[in-house]
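User: Reviewer 2 asked us to show a designed sequence for the structure in our supplementary figure. I'm pasting the C-alpha cells here. Could you produce the per-position amino acids so we can include them in the response letter?
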C-alpha cells in the first residue's frame, strides 16, 4: 500500500500558457518512499544519487504535457482507479463545495483515494512517457488524500479535497479516458 504522505506539495496546480504546472518540496524523510513509489509505478530506476542526499531538495517544478498534442493513452487499471476516485469525490462534492463536510468524513474519502492509488500503482502498465506524466497526478492525489486524512497540520481536509479535484481535472485534460466522469464543481 502507498505510504500516507509520499510527496507533499506546497503549491496547488496552476496553469501557465495552457499547461498545468506543479511544485514539489521533498523532505529528507520521504525521499525513500518517493523512490519506492516511483519504482513501483514505472518499473524503471531513478538516478541513485537523487535518493541519497541528506538535504532538502527545494521546489522542483513539474509540468504536465500532452503527447505531441494528443492525450496520453491509458490502460484498464488506470481507468478503473481514476473512475473510482472520481465517483468517491462526486458523492461528497456538494458538501465539500459548501464547506459542510465534517472533518471526520474526509478520512474515509482519503482512505478510498489511497486504496485506488495503490490499485493503480500495482496494476497500471503505461509506457514510460505516459507513466512519467501520471506520476505527477498520483503525487497530487496522495498528497491531497494525506491532507484530507488530517495528516498535514499546515493544511485543511477541504484543501486536500481541492487538491484531489485538481488532480482529477488534470487527468481528464491530459489522459484519453472516454469513460471518465468528471467531478462538476
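Assistant: Here is a per-position design you can include in the supplement:
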Amino acid at each position: 500500500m502507498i505510504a500516507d504522505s509520499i510527496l507533499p506539495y506546497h503549491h496547488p496546480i496552476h496553469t501557465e500558457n495552457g499547461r498545468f504546472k506543479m511544485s514539489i518540496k521533498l523532505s529528507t524523510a520521504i525521499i525513500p518512499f518517493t523512490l519506492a513509489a516511483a519504482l513501483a509505478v514505472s518499473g524503471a530506476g531513478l538516478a541513485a544519487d537523487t535518493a541519497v542526499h541528506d538535504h532538502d531538495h527545494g521546489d522542483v517544478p513539474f509540468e504536465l504535457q500532452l503527447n505531441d498534442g494528443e492525450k496520453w493513452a491509458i490502460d484498464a487499471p488506470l481507468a478503473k482507479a481514476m473512475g473510482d476516485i472520481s465517483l468517491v469525490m462526486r458523492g461528497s462534492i456538494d458538501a465539500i463545495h459548501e464547506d459542510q463536510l465534517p472533518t471526520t468524513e474526509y478520512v474515509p474519502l482519503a482512505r478510498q483515494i489511497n486504496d485506488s492509488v495503490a490499485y493503480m500503482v500495482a496494476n497500471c502498465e503505461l509506457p514510460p512517457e505516459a507513466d512519467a506524466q501520471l506520476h505527477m497526478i498520483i503525487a497530487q492525489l496522495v498528497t491531497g488524500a494525506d491532507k484530507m486524512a488530517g495528516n498535514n497540520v499546515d493544511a485543511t481536509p477541504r484543501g486536500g479535497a481541492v487538491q484531489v479535484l485538481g488532480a482529477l481535472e488534470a487527468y481528464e485534460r491530459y489522459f484519453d479516458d472516454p469513460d471518465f466522469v468528471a467531478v462538476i464543481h
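For the response letter, you might also mention the following. Confidence is low (pLDDT under 50) at residues 1-61. Residues 76-97 form the longest helix (22 residues).
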